[in-house]
Amino acid sequence: MAMVMDLGFPSFESFDYTTTTTTTTTTTTTTSSTDEGCNWSDWSPVVDWNEISGDQDFQNLIDSMIDENVVIHQSIRPIDDDDQIHEAEYNNSSPEYNMAMQDEAGSAEDSKGLRLIHLLMATAEAMAGRDECRGLARVILVRLKELVSPTYGTNMERLAAYFGDALQASLDAGAGGRLAPGAAEHHRADVLAAFQLLQDMSPYVKFGHFTANQAILEAVANDRRVHIVDYDIMEGIQWASLMQALVSRKDGPPAPHLRITAVSRSGTGRRSFGTVQETGRRLTAFAASIGQPFSFHQCRLDADETFRPTSLKLVRGEALVFNCMLHLPHFSHRAPDSIASFLSGAGTLNPRLITLVEEEMAPPSEGGFVGRFMDLLHHFSTVYDSLEAGFPMQSRARALVERVFLGPRIMESVGRIYRGRETEEGCSWGQWLGAVGFRPVSISFANHCQAKLLLGLYNDGYRVEELTTNKLVLGWKSRRLLSASIWTSQDCDL
Amino acid sequence: MFHPKKPSSMTSHERPMCVQGDSGLVLTTDPKPRLRWTVELHERFVDAVTQLGGPDKATPKTIMRVMGVKGLTLYHLKSHLQKFRLGKQPHKDFNDHSMKDASSLDLQRNNASSSGMMGRSMNEMQMEVNRRLHEQLEVQRHLQLRIEAHGKYMQTILEKACQTVLAGDGSGSYNKSTATAPDFAQTLSFPSLQDLNIYGSSEHLESLHHQSMERESFIPVSDNFLGKKRSVQYTTPSSGKSPLIWADDLRLQELGPADDQIDSVSDIYETKPMLSGDHEKKYEAKMDRPSPPRRAAAISAGGMQQGRSSPFG
User: Fold this and answer.
1) CA-to-CA distance for B152 and B154, rounded, in angstroms?
2) CA-to-CA distance for A133 and A83, rounded, in angstroms?
3) Which residue from B148, B154, B267 is facing A237, i.e. has the nearest CB?
4) Model-level pTM?
């Protein structure tokens, strides 16, 4: 099939697709290697195909990965005599494999899910290896694509579709290059619909916003002027509830003046000057409707998205708060340098408070790219599960949210770990803040209590835990998903 | 009635489960004989539920089987289970905190180690517990208001977006949506959370469940984006309250994504899985579901979990 030829496997010079059709069949019937006249030993000597396929042909190998009855014992990439490092990763006793095998091995759908995981894992392993294996990775991805679709099927199938696309994009972009600028810009109505749905289906959005707001309220209890610098204001919905709380606060000076500076970027898109201005208008109108003294400003980032503290307009005597929301649906695929410049710029101004909400990932394990990839897979499969629990029947609605928010997120995350696979992955932003000298601020009883009550409005599977004194973590069942942490600068007395 | 003060006792001592209807049920002598949930019967109930893995996993049928009490009908169990579930939820944290603080004060009391101070510490402990309870109630109240504000703001976003869409597009395909937009405008009044009374009594929550059921059978307005014409049908909410915030979503869908994958507005709130090419859908008037009623996604009060776990668990 022409499709396969277009993939272009540069390293397999002696590949001759016209003589073999083994890789292009869509049936799962096995065919012996000699049927189509394909003699493996004729192929590139760099690749030890016999090692890979044993006495079966390539197609059979892939089918064996798909066939639920066959357990993979063979390694699927060429192994030199002295290259034993990755052997363990293929071992069936790997933790991910066991974890996958233990749960729900019975039903057909779950076994298909397992097969998909195998395929994804195999692709990741191939990609983590030497260049010769990139071709293998592409082939597996082709097969994967045939099995899944981003909009239909079970959670695992849709998830596998997105991860497959992400891996494909990473492959195409090459090891060093940047990912092509994300998915197509979504129709604004789509984004709004997905945003509304995301909020209704899960507490992700509200958890981050409310926790941060409560911490801010407590920190500015006695202030007349409050200035908040928001890294990614989006529609500004976080501040609606803060304003309501400020207006109705009983202790401290009544009706404190709230000033919000939103960070905006050049160009078009969700964070452009025009969009942010629209948000500002909306916030101003809302504030007026509830009687909250309010003013709105913008602060432009440089062309390279660096934040310059000097471009902020400050007023003497105001309580300064920096708000950094990096979780869904805020897009975080801006350069980490930008976020770093924002947070370190904040440090130079000695803010009263820094509120940070980010996704909680497991610490980077020794598994390298594959380990981090499986962790990502676990993370997002948990997110999918939690959304399904909230909206069990409306898979189309979930598909929309997945398309608008989760898919791009997956794409970006996979790209990030793929690019960084040679170097050690950085720590979370929370750890970074701690390391550069910010002090943690304890989460109050009221804040914790509010989080618990909020989660109580959603599915029982959500949990909140106080991981450290200054960090609340939202999790689904046993997996941590989101963390909200509160910091202050060294000089402030809180 | 289920008493909230009593912690859901997961008793550890062994209790034979397969009792053959020995304890006769206590029925009142009202004209309508109603089952009285005595303490003992309730204990059996709680044990059975625990054995089955918690109130969310247990079903009336399995509970009935496990309890093995003669004369106990599914109907009794259904309502009792529902009350049990609802009763658990708002007091979950209640118990957590009061227990936690009580135990921490307990430590302090031991440190005091003087019998004279015992009395005073008891009072302190009580006061501390009371304080925490009050704080918790405050938090509840504030949360309610904040969620309301959040929702009101969300509405301004949607309204503005709808306006810009309607204003911007003069083509014929939007005629229907402009006609129906006023309808939606009425139903979009964001119900104050006081109405929903999340933390309130079970009657309200039951009506909430009714509303959530209607949400599923709520048939949305035609999506004109793809030029399909469908009639607008509303099922009348039996509780008399306006539809919940889901009305927002439906109007959102009216704005319509210009994407084939969401090829129909109604797909968003389909009541059963749809096949891809199937545009001639049948609308189910009302979804028939046995109790317990379905959980509303945004407002839940201890319903059952429905997600199927992935291999990752």
Assistant:
1) 5
2) 14
3) B154
4) 0.58
For residues A43 and A15, give the distance between their C-alpha atoms in angstroms, rounded to a whole number.
Answer: 6
Residue A238 has pLDDT above 80, yes or no: yes
Q: How far is A238 from chain B (nearest CA, A)?
A: 8
What are the tens digits of pLDDT across the range B40-74?
A: 888 888 888 888 888 888 888 888 888 888 888 88
| Mean residue pLDDT across chain B | 56
Amino acid residing at A408: P
DSSP string, A168-205: HHHHHHTTTSPPPS-SPPPPHHHHHHHHHHHHHH-SHH
Peptide bond into A329 cis (omega under 30): yes
Distance from CA of B100 to the nearest CA of A (A): 12
| Nearest CA-CA distance, residue A259 and chain B, Å | 18
Query: Whole-angstrom Cα distance, residue A119 to residue A168?
Result: 13
Query: Strand locations in A341-470, DSSP E?
Result: 353-359, 439-440, 462-468
Interface test with B, best of A282, A394, A479 (most B CBs within 10 A): A394
Q: State the DSSP string of A369-382.
A: HHHHHHHHHHHHHH
Closest CA to B294 of B215, B178, B195: B215
Residue indicated by tokens 């798909």: A66
Task: Tell me which residue of B219, B199, B200, B218 sits closest to B210, measured CA to CA.
Answer: B218
Predicted confidence (pLDDT) at residue A364 exceeds the cutoff of 80: no
* A117, amino acid identity: I
Give, as one character, the DSSP assignment of residue A476.
E
Using a CB-CB cut-off of 8 Å, the residues of chain B touching A379 are none
CB B132: neighbour CB atoms within 10 A? 18
Is B156 near chain A, with CB under 8 Å? yes
- Beta strand A294-300 with A319-325 is unpaired
Distant-in-sequence, close-in-space partners of A29: CB < 8 Å, separation ≥ 6? none
The position carrying tokens 């014929």 is: B172
| Cα–Cα distance for residue pair A309/A347, rounded to 1 Å | 9
- Give the residue among B197, B209, B196 at the shortest CA–CA distance from B303: B209
Compute and round to an integer the Cα radius of gyration of chain A.
25
With vertex at residue A387, the alpha carbon angle to CA A381 and CA A389, rounded to the nearest 5 degrees, is 105
Q: Strand pairing of A479-488 and A353-359?
A: antiparallel
* Cα(A128)–Cα(A154) distance, integer angstroms: 28
- For B70, residues 6+ apart whose C-beta sits below 8 A from its C-beta are B20, B21, B25
- H-helix segments, A81-227: 87-90, 95-102, 108-128, 132-147, 155-173, 188-201, 204-219
Phi, psi of A175 (to 5 degrees): -70, -35
Report the alpha-carbon distance of residue A61 to residue A67 in Å, rounded. Answer: 10
